[in-house]
Amino acid sequence: MEGALDLSSLLRLLSQAERQAGQLMAQVHADGNQYRRTALLQQIRSCLEDAIATAKIMEPEPSNLPPQLPLSDSPPISNSGSPRSECSERVLFKEHERREMCKKRKTLPKWASRVCVAGGGLAEGLEDGYSWRKYGQKGILGARHPRGYYRCTHRNTAGCLATKQVQRSDDDSCVFDITYRGDHTCQQKLQAPPTPGADEPATSQSHDHHQAQVLNSSFFFPSSSAQITSFPPQNLVFSSTAAVEDHHRNYYTGSSTPLFISPATSDSNYFPVAPSQVAVHPNASESELTEIVSAAASTTNSPRMDANFMLDQAEFGPLFNFDPSNFFGSSF
DNA sequence: TAGATTTGACCTTT
DNA sequence: AAAGGTCAAATCTA
User: Fold this and answer.
1) Disordered: where is this region (predicted)?
2) How long is the CA A236 to C1' B14 vector, in angstroms?
C-alpha cells in the first residue's frame, strides 16, 4: 500500500466509513432482529477499525488528525522518518495485535449454539470441515465443568479469527453450550474431502451456513449410530427449507434422500439434525466427549458471512454505499 | 520433528 | 478485585 494513497486522506476516509458503519449498525438494531445484516456490518466495522489502526501504525508523519491513543505504555517510538529497527516494529505490531484482539472481542459477531450428544457407538473420526486448535481451558465460576477455548487452526497462516468456546452443561452432561465468535475467513471448506459441487462459489453456502455445516457432519459420518441434536440460537434467522435443500444439492449431488428436517418444519426450537449420523462412545471420558463435541459443534456453526457475502451490496440497501474494494483493493 | 495440547501467568473487562 | 479470555512455555504425540 506504500505510496499508493496519502495516508492522512486514507485515514479520514476510513474513519468516515467506520462512523457510517456504526450509525448503520444502530439503525439495523433499531429496525429489528436482522442477524445477518447486523453481523455483516459488525464485520465491516471491524475491518475498518483494523485498517485504521494499521494505517495509523504505518503513518510516517504526525498528521493533522486528532491525536491517536498510544499503543502501549512504553515510551513512544519515534516515527519521524528515521528507520525503526525490525525489533521495535515487531514489538509495536505485537502490542497492536493484542489490543486489536481485545477490541475484536467486542466487535466480532457472536452467537451461541447448544449441542446434545447421546446414544452409543464409536466416536472415531468425528471431524468437520473446520479445524480448531485449543488454546486454553478455564474453570468458570459456578460451573462444574471447565470451559474450553478454541481458535481456528489457520489463524496464523490465514488470519482467520474464528473462535469458539465449548462448555459442558451443568444440568445435562450430554449438552454442550458453544459460543462462536467471528467467522471463518480461511476457506477451510477447501480442505474437506472432495464432494460433488464443493467448489461452488462461497455465496451459495453463505446464507445458511448452519445447515451447510450440518450437512458436512452427516456427509463425513453416514454410517454412525448415535445422535447429535442442535439448538439453533433464537436470534438467528434461517431463510427457508429451500435453502436447506440447496445445500443438500451442494454437498450431496446425486443423493435423493432428504436427510434433514428443516427448521421451518419444526414447531419448537429443538432442531433434530441428521438423525443417526454421529456416533459417540457411551463410556467416553469427559475430555474425550468434550473433544468430540468440539468437533461436532462446529458442524452446527452459525450463519457464515464469507467474502462474497460481505461484498453483496444488496444486503446494504441504499443506505450504505461503502465498497470495500475501493477502500482496500488498491491500497491494502 | 512439527503440530497439538496443557496449564500457569498475564491482561482486559466488569 | 474478581472473573473471563488469551498467551506462551512446557509437554505430548504421531
Assistant:
1) 60-86, 187-209
2) 27
